[in-house]
Every structure is written in structure tokens, then in C-alpha cells.
Amino acid sequence: MTEHPRGPVDWARQQQSEREQQPVRKLLDQLSDAELTALYDRAETAERRFQLTAGHLEETLGRLRGARDALAAEADLSRQVLARAEQAEAERDKACRAFNTKVIRVQEVEAALTETRHHLRYLLDYDGPRHCHLVPGRWDKDGSPCDHCARLATARATLEPKES
Ligand SMILES: [Zn+2]
Questions:
Q1: How far apart are CA 53 and CA 55, in angstroms?
Q2: 153 and 137 in contact (C-beta within 8 Å)?
Q3: 114 Cα–ligand 1 center, Å
Q4: Residue 17: beta bridge partners?
Q5: What spacing in Å lies between the alpha carbon of 136 and ligand 1's midpoint?
Q6: How far apart are CA 115 and CA 12, in angstroms?
Q7: Sign of the alpha-carbon dihedral angle for 66, 71, 75, 80
Q8: Residue-wise pLDDT tens digits, 41-89
Q9: Which contiguous run of DSSP H or E holds residue 47?
Q10: Could you list which residues have their CB under 5 Å from ion ligand 1?
């Protein structure tokens, strides 16, 4: 017998023929005991496979839930770390502002001390006569401010106790 090359039509016919041979294609009352047993075995195998697949799915679902919870915990931790970092940054900024305020205050006090030092040096070095004005602190002839009296007034004010 010569073997002819098989095309797609031949292959499809063979598949159809094999399908018709399967017990499930017959009516139930035409099945033999052996075919029924085979059918039952196939059903049982399918059932086992289904349970196995369901088990795998359940296991995968459990792993996914675990991963999701781990991610949520990680995100929560990140938020806490970020909140602490922001708080630390705010405290650092506050400390910086307080420090800058103190630096400015020290500079103001140093400037006042320098001014007072100059007034005291002038007054210690002054060897001119005492003098007075018709209007205190202003020259009689043109009303312009007297530098000597202004320095005296500033030095006296420096010696007064300060309120702040
Ligand atoms: Zn004067």
C-alpha cells in the first residue's frame, strides 16, 4: 500500500474520526461498562486537576495578599520616615532662625558698645570749658545742634537702666 502525503483535509478527517470514537460522543445507553469506567476515570482525573489548579490559585492569591500587605507596610514606613525628616527639617529651620536673631542682636549690642566707647573716649579727652545754651543742646547764634551736648546726652542715656 502506497502512503500518500497527508494534507490538512486528511488531518481534519482523522481528528473528526478520533473524536467520534470517544465514549462521550455516544449516547449514555450505548456505553459499555468499560467505556463508562473510562469516562468516570477521565472525570475523576479532571476533578483532581481542577482541585490542583484551585489549590495553586489559592496559594498564588495568598502570596499576592502577602506581597500587597508587605508593600502597604513599606509605604507606611516610608511615610513615617518622611514625616520625621520633615519635622527635623522644620526644627532645624526654627533653630537657624533663632540663631540668626541672636547673631543680629549681638551685632546690635556690639555696635552700641562701640558708639558708647567713642563717646566715653571723647568725654575723657575733653579739656574745654563747661558751657551752656539758651536752648539746651543748640547753639545760640544759629540754633544748630551742639555736638558736645549731643555726646553728653547719649552717654547719660547709655548709663540709664534699659527696659528690655
Ligand atoms: Zn553744648
A1: 5
A2: yes
A3: 22
A4: none
A5: 7
A6: 112
A7: positive
A8: 999 999 999 999 999 999 999 999 999 999 999 999 999 999 999 999 9
A9: helix 33-125
A10: 146, 148-149
